[in-house]
C-alpha cells in the first residue's frame, strides 16, 4: 500500500480530509458521478483487551454437590 504525507497533498484535499477527521464521516471521491474511492478516518479502539469482560458475568451460586450421580467422589465418602 502506498503511503503519502498529508502535507504533500493540495490544500483543498487537506481541508476535506481534516473535515472528515473532525466529523468522523467518510469522504467519497467520485468521477463522472460514479464513486471510485471512499476515505474514512481510522477509529482507534478506546477499550483495551485486558479487562474487557469485567462486570459482564453474574455469579449465581457455588458448586456444593457433584453435578452427576454417575461419578463416585472419594471426598464425599
Q: In what order do the strands lie side by side in the largest sheet?
A: 1-2
Report the sheet with the most strands, covering strand number, pairing sense and barrel closure.
2 strands, antiparallel
Q: How much of the polypeptide forms β-strand, as a percent range?
A: 5-15%
Distance between the termini: 68 Å
Mean pLDDT: 79
Can you tell me the overall shape? rod-shaped
Q: How is this structure best described in words?
A:
- Helices cover 17% and strands 14% of the residues.
- Strands 1-2 form a two-stranded antiparallel sheet.
- It has one helix spanning 11-23; strands at residues 27-31, 34-39.
- The protein is of the alpha+beta class.
- The radius of gyration is 28 Å and the shape is rod-shaped.
List keywords for this structure.
single chain, 77 residues, alpha+beta, 1 helix, 17% helix
List the helices and strands and how they pair.
Layout: H1 11-23, E1 27-31, E2 34-39
Antiparallel strand pairs: 1-2
Question: In short, what is this structure?
Answer:
The chain is of the alpha+beta class and 77 residues long. 17% of the residues lie in helices and 14% in strands.
Amino acid at each position: 500500500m502506498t503511503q503519502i504525507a498529508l502535507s504533500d497533498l493540495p490544500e483543498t484535499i487537506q481541508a476535506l480530509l481534516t473535515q472528515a477527521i473532525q466529523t468522523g464521516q467518510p469522504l467519497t471521491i467520485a468521477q463522472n458521478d460514479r464513486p471510485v474511492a471512499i476515505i474514512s478516518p481510522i477509529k482507534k479502539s478506546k477499550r483495551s483487551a485486558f479487562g474487557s469482560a469485567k462486570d459482564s458475568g453474574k455469579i449465581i451460586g457455588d458448586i456444593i454437590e457433584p453435578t452427576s450421580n454417575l461419578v463416585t467422589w472419594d471426598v464425599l465418602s
